[in-house]
Task: inverse folding
């Protein structure tokens, strides 16, 4: 059992949590919490650690038997944890590397992000993106690190499953996406069309800008069309993750209405009194 915060592995874990450069150079990241650890693909698991009190709880016995985590004193685990109330288990996971073809191959909608800075927003986009059935997310280099611990937690496990590709240069990436038959829509306050008035049944991608400043004019100018989400009252714009959610679910609605993966909404869905 690890009992000291000066232990080499503890120092390595803290570096992975705190420094993007460490995550880039090692190709590793931390996944903290029972759900994230349980959902981590076994072929990507490098190591698992748990607190002494976590190991002492009978309901964790089967998980401990399967993963065989290294144990830590509670005080040491708290020093490694990025949360105020640690669940008591974390994993070191290898990053999965995707190619752009992994995102565009199925013709599903994409999100393209320009300089998103909030880890929670990025994590939420992955989570809702998985729910809406997108093909993946493309981000520029200025977007917050996907493997920031706050981002990873916000994905609720979608970080393992939603393809994510960082573009070297956004214009080049958009050109590549367009060659795969995609039409690119910029979410913009000055968009010519309401977002519900556009056809998303073909391959499409939504360009989402920075939380504070929106899309740069240069990025917006690379889109095939600009669309807007109508606002009432004194609200000027929506949170970036909420805007992205509206767009990808509208695309999902249209595609399902057109017959793609249309579910059976028959008698089994009628609520019983």
Result:
């Amino acid at each position: 059992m690890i009992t000291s915060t000066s232990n080499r592995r503890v120092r390595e874990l803290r570096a992975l949590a705190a420094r993007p450069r460490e995550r880039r150079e090692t190709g590793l990241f931390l996944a903290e919490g029972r759900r994230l650890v349980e959902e981590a693909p076994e072929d990507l698991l490098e190591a698992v650690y748990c607190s002494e009190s976590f190991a002492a709880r009978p309901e964790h016995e089967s998980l401990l038997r399967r993963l065989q985590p290294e144990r830590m004193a509670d005080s040491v685990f708290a020093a490694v944890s990025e949360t105020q109330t640690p669940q008591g288990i974390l994993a070191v996971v290898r990053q999965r590397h995707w190619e752009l073809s992994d995102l565009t191959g199925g013709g599903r909608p994409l999100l393209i992000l320009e300089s998103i800075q909030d880890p929670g927003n990025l994590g939420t986009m992955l989570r809702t993106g998985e729910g809406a059935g997108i093909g993946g997310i493309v981000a520029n280099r200025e977007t917050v690190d996907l493997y920031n611990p706050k981002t990873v937690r916000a994905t609720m496990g979608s970080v393992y499953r939603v393809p994510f590709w960082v573009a070297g240069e956004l214009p080049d990436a958009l050109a590549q996406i367009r060659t795969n038959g995609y039409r690119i829509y910029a979410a913009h306050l000055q968009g010519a069309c309401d977002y519900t008035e556009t056809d998303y049944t073909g391959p499409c991608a939504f360009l989402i800008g920075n939380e504070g400043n929106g899309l740069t004019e240069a990025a917006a100018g690379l889109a095939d069309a600009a669309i807007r989400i109508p606002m009432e009252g004194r609200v000027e714009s929506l949170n970036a993750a909420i805007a992205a959610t509206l767009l990808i679910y509208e695309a999902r609605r249209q595609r399902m209405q057109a017959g793609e993966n249309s579910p059976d909404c028959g008698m089994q869905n009628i609520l019983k009194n």
